[in-house]
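Q: I'm writing up a methods section and want to include an example of the input and output format. Could you take the sequence below and give the corresponding predicted structure tokens, formatted cleanly so I can copy it straight into the document?
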Amino acid sequence: MSNNGLLSLTSSMAGDIVVIHVNGVLDATTREQFSDYLDAAADDHGPGMVLDLGGVTFMDSRALGLIVHHWQRSTTAGGKFALISVQYPNSKVMWVTGLSERLPLFDTLDEALAAFAA
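A: Here is the clean output for your methods example:
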């Protein structure tokens, strides 16, 4: 668990997939914390990763860049990657950049895991 008051990060496992629960602000003030947590999760649990963004209250382009980096890192290593519970107003940058059409977005963890199994 990682919590600095602006951002809280926790993780759980769904089979061989690490699920990272993100709550709070993803911006310049939390970038390093977010980056370090994602790096450690990938190093500790392998390339399969789901980011639960349902608790995100704001996301800037730097945070989106980190998400894209981990998406590429995961898929290059042969893993699965998905974003779940993404809320438009809080993650607007994803739509403005067009990445909402490219990133693997699902409403729920079950939907993401079913897509991985297909």
